[in-house]
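quick one, 164 residues, struct below
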Amino acid sequence: MYQISEAAALSGLTVRALRHYDAIGLLQPATRSDAGYRLYSNEDVKALQRIRRYQGFGFSLDEIGELLTAKAPDRLEALRNQRDAVRQRTSDTAQVVRAINQEITKENNGEKERPTDGSVPKHSSANTGTGPGPSLFRAFRHCSLTLWTYCVPSPRPSRWTPMR
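---
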């Protein structure tokens, strides 16, 4: 049996998440100690790992609760449906990127932009010594992407410290 902190570490989740899952009935610990501490079995830890994987696939906690108790054919169908939904979102995102590129071309007086590799474009103010400079362009490299969320530029790169 594992205490809550050990189960959290083994599953890659937080103690707070495990308490939440217990409170909503998603996954309750196998037993409790005499002092009332949550104790998790090996099967519980495996279920927690599945929960984490399913969250990574974009399932809601309600859907995950159903998946944990579903039979194999139903889980396969749900996974296939989720895969198709992710593929559709990927396609939609690609269309948005194409539309943005077309708008950039229009704004750039018909001149197509080179593919981005994270470097500062030649025509930017970073090379002229005026304007926001390279740090503005670096901010766009600090964003995080997942299959189901859009990348939003970070307002401040991690090397910046908040103003006081």
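The first helix runs from residue 4 to 11.
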